[in-house]
Amino acid sequence: MLLVGLSYIQEPWATTPVTAADTSRDYLMYKLLQSLILSSTLMLATSVQGQGESEHFPQLPDLGDSSLATISLEKEAMLGRSFMQSLRRQLPFESDPLIEDYVESLGYRLAAGADDKLRFQFFVVRNKEVNAFAGPGGYIGIHTGLITTAENESELASVLAHEIAHVTQRHIARRIEENSQLSIPAIAAIFAAIAVASTSPDAASALLIGSQAGLIQNQINFTRKNEKEADRIGMQLLTNAKLDPSGMFRFFQRMQKSTRLYSREIPEFLLTHPVTDSRVADAQARAAQLGKPDNLNNLSFELAKARLEVLQMREGQVKQALYSHYKGQNTVQARYYRAMINLRQKDYIKAISELSELQKQFPSEVFINVPLATALSKDGHPKQALLLLTEQLSLMPGNHPLTMALASLYLEQKTPEKARKLLASHIRNHPVPRVYQQLWLAQGRSGKNTLAKISQAEFYVLLGDYRSARQHLKQALKTEDLNAQLKSEIQARLTEINQEAKKLRS
Predict the structure, then answer these.
(1) What is the DSSP string of 292-353?
(2) Strand pairing of 58-59 and 51-52?
(3) What value does the mean pLDDT take over residues 29-36?
(4) SS3 label, residue 92
(5) Which of 25, 163, 326, 448 could join 334 in a cystine, given CB atoms 3.0 to 4.6 angstroms apart?
(6) Residue 426 annotated as part of some ligand binding site
(7) What is the mean pLDDT of residues 248-271?
(8) Does 162 belong to an annotated binding site?
(9) Domain residue spans in the chain?
(10) Is 429 helix (H, G, I), strand (E, B) or coil?
(11) Within 10 A of 59 (CB to CB), how many other CB atoms are there?
(12) Other Cβ atoms within 10 Å of 239 Cβ, number
């Protein structure tokens, strides 16, 4: 089910991200995808991170230095786009901008220490199981369950660092290159099987048998040497980012312990990342050599974890959680958790009171300021909310959560032109479905229907729905009094989309 124009200023638990509609069906497809492609696999050489040049069309990706790749950059780029298109169509992404931004920031912080020319894209899948994975083109995803299970930021970062290391060391790219039989159609067949699974698991299985699934599975299995190398490089990335390298072996230990306690339900992480005693010992010894940073506490991690716990609650759990979880505690995390519960229960006065007190301690913390603005707006104080968000955005230009919250508030206050201008600039660095949705809503409400059609087309390209993308661009071409420059841009974009779709079919 696709929801148009989701408003971030409303409580995020009241919205549904762009995903398949049926939860059980999503899960089936998700497990299939994990077992064949994700599972820390198909990590190729470079990243495809689109940058937009204007409000109309995104800039073509910079494919980087060809000397870095062990397979062709064009093939890698196509695999990466196809990979993400399939995920966006089939999986429930966590679209809360605060959670997205936190994971991206942590990922880029780690990747910065890799001394590598690659660019990465990090994203979050809404799933309570503990796992992480990498895909073609440097795309790295984690489950929400990984965030809520990690006891500190270093544990969470250790998993991200491990995945980054697999990418930078070209583990899968090298093996794919060794077997010329592996092609874009072979990978695309797996994606097709995922789509078929939404209606017929048996048909999906048959399709997998006929799509060289065995060959692909053989190519994506990591060796023990690969795993140890990823651990070693990952721990160095943790140290470079001034994070605690012992987070890796401590996380391994906890996963092992959970296996012993719940032997019938092995954690998903261990199914895709086997942890042996020797691997834990190696990580522990290396951590002792690397040492610890001075400051291990991180406020953003604690707030992200508390926020996500509330976001993932079912309605019947919310009231009970207020009196059970963090009961009697007065830590910042506990106070924030209670504020999020109050906000979800629409007790805006209590939420404002708690968040305002926290803001006095941490005046620039976006995890506090964004929900505070939400509560103020919902409680009938939109001017205060606007002032708070605009002031904070002036201090942190381009901040994703602040921008999305402010744009949504502009739309609520019936000033869509302000939202349009803000999002048209923001889309250049955040060309993702959610931003395109908000942008086309703002464009439509501003009377710029042609631009709205173009944004809708780009949204469908991100989902791999080229047919719908072409339809929207063709509708845009029918606009009366369309100026020559924009008409030329639309026609050029149509040509690009046709070429991309053709390559994916070949």
Answers:
(1) --S----HHHHHHHHHHHHHT--HHHHHHHHHHTTTT--SHHHHHHHHHHHHHTT-HHHHHH
(2) antiparallel
(3) 44
(4) coil
(5) 326
(6) no
(7) 62
(8) yes
(9) 17-49+62-290, 313-396
(10) coil
(11) 12
(12) 20
Q: Cα–Cα distances in Å, from 262 out to 95, 279, 338? A: 31, 21, 31
Element (H, E) at 141: strand 139-143
Are 84 and 47 in contact by the 8 Å Cβ rule? The answer is no
3-class SS shares of the chain: helix, strand, coil, % to 5: 65, 5, 30
Whether the CB-CB separation of 9 and 409 falls below 8 Å is answered with: yes
Q: How far is CA 46 from CA 80, 81, 331, in A?
A: 9, 12, 42
User: How high is the pLDDT of residue 287?
Assistant: 62
430 carries a ligand binding annotation: no
Which residues face 59 on adjacent strands? 51
Residues serving a catalytic function are 163, 231
Residues composing the chain: 506
- Fold for domain 313-396? 1.25.40
Distances (CA, A) of 464 to 23, 84, 141, 458, 505: 21, 9, 19, 10, 12
By C-alpha distance, which of 352, 158, 351 is closest to 273?
158
- pLDDT (tens digit per residue) in 142-187: 999 999 999 999 999 999 999 898 888 876 566 556 554 555 545 5
Output the CA–CA distances (angstroms, integers) from residue 358 to 97, 145, 330, 373, 407, in the order listed: 20, 26, 11, 13, 24
Residue 353 tokens, joined: 């009171």
Q: Are 173 and 71 in contact (CB under 8 A)?
A: yes
Residue linked to tokens 């809404």: 126
Three-state DSSP at 149 gives helix
Model confidence pTM above 0.85: no
Q: Do 234 and 164 contact (CB within 8 A), yes or no?
A: yes
Per-residue pLDDT tens over the stretch 312-364: 998 878 877 766 777 778 899 999 999 999 999 999 999 999 999 999 999 99
In a 13 Å sphere around the CA of 12, the CA atoms on its Cβ side amount to 25
pLDDT score, position 274: 57
Residue listed under structure tokens 């660095």: 429
